[in-house]
Design a protein that fits this description.
Distance between the termini: 47 Å
Strand order of the largest sheet: 4-3-2-5-6-8-9-10
Oligomer: single chain
Shape: globular
Strand content: 5-15%
Length: 470
Amino acid sequence: MERKCEIEQEPLNASSSESDSEDEEEVPFHVPTSEVVFRGHVQSVVSVLAVAAALAAMVYAPNGGVFDPMACIACGYIFGVFCFQNTFVEWPAVPCHILLLLASALASLLAPTGLQHVGLWATWGVKCVAWAIDVAIVISGYRLMVRGPAYAHLGEGSLEGKTFVITGCNTGIGYETAKTLADAGATVVFACRSEDKALAAMKKIVEECAGQVQEEQLVFVPLDTSSFESVRRFAGLLEKTGVKPQTLILNAGVMLSNRSLSKDGLEMTMATNHFGHFLLVHQLLPGLLAAEGRGEKPRIVIVGSNMSYLHDRFDFRELEVVSGDEKAKQLYMEKPYELFRSYGQSKLANLHFTTELARRLQAKGSKIPVNQIHPGEVLTEVMRDMHPVIVKLNEIFRPVAMGFMKTPTQGAFCTLHLATDPALATSDNITGAHFVRCSPAPLSRAGRDKQVAARLWDISENVTKETSVV
């Protein structure tokens, strides 16, 4: 008799209902997109139609239209960035200043035709003013739409005596976060997989900060968030160092092009992005609560993604634990897999973890804030595990992408804002929120589902075999 794939899924509780299983079976591989994604598509279509209408008005203008190159570049850049960002769900809600910027770009496109109609476009002075406005629109577009707002400046020594644990900070956003915090006097724990890369990053920070950062401010403790054993070992080693962290920044994450399994039999993306951080927080939470009891103001910052908006529901089959022989693993590996589906589900899990942990801490009477951030579309090494062709194309078009995507320094702005802003030091102001461009963003219907968040929490406890203190 053929042996079937043995897949265990820890139940939500001892009385998991049969209807739950039926609901799971109904989730298709191609999960329907959320209402936020649909709204983004509508925003892009409306934008394209607005530009098309403006071009049509210019073509059919009584005295002919003026297609000024500068105006076309300005308008094309603003609307190009806007549509590109909508593709990645960058605008769950479009603020008034962005609407004004879009309107200004359209006006700049139409202005030369209107000025020619009244006989002013032939004047060089008018043209120069119009071109200056076009340049200002492009600069504003980059600053407001691509770069986004920055965190408040951290003065020299302003974080002295504070300790931050950052996962996956030897490169990219995590590195820039660690560098800025250390430069302000903080002690930073590098929770990374590779000791060589972490030590090289620490050395680089000391060199780049030119005497502002001392070697003893940077501490390396090995951590692989895809392994429960590694997470528990990290907690033990951290305790032995005597370092007492006030802030956790859960930055590590992967985006994998192929299905793979963790040491614990979990889908690797979910293991690394969700389960590992879930366990890490529970290992360190007693220390954070103790710090709060001493009058300190600990925080938890989770680096999520607007990819959490991608799906209209969470697929609990992503939490399957694969056990058995090699045949069982092979059967699991042959199941359908899609990069953005897996990544989006893991980021929706991050969001549910954020909101549920915030609720539980508040119920316990704690004021530790737990918030998630979306760094934006950043030129980092997140695509290092993708297909070699995609990696090569990323290298070729990197100079062009710099006009549409953030640098790692800019990608760290929102993380630093949540980790250091005095107004966000406790949950009195806000907790359980998803921040985009340093401001809280609306959640999708799926992201607001408290029952799913609670169920994910209980399953995560069962899978990690960790009993929560909240």
